[in-house]
Write a structure and sequence with these properties.
Elements: H1 7-25, E1 44-45, E2 48-49, H2 50-53, H3 57-61, H4 92-99, H5 107-121, H6 131-150
Antiparallel strand pairs: 1-2
Helix pairs in contact: 4-6, 5-6
Length: 154
Amino acid sequence: MLFGQSIFQSVLERLKEEEDATVESEEPVSHRVSGFATGLAFDVMEGVSAASQRVGQAYLDNLGPEPVVEAPPAPEPEPEPVMPDHLARIAPEDVAAELSIKSNDTQQTLNEKRRAFAKANHPDGVAQPFRANANRRMMIANLLIDEAVRRLPR
């Protein structure tokens, strides 16, 4: 204890004295900066600069008039997709005729035929309404090629 007070009480007394001293020593707000011979050049209303009241507006004031933006034209409706002719041929005989698998085909030629057929008929490459036909054609082609590979001489 210092002079009959606890440390806490003495700190509180000191803070109170400092607060009273700062309140008494405050001077009226002046719009001059010490060291400058003249005042600052801005409008002040009640101690707040006019520019600080509209912080983001200063940038926009210098942009000029807003450009006229025309509404984009309405997109034309997409035409209804048309099914390619080859997707209508889903019979195994039609797919076999397109593949033209021969008895002298090798593993390599059969793989090339599979890739070429998939490139033209894969379901991911056609419009949504025709994917069922494309999927069926790919299943038939894969079955035919797998059977031809299985029958190759070893």
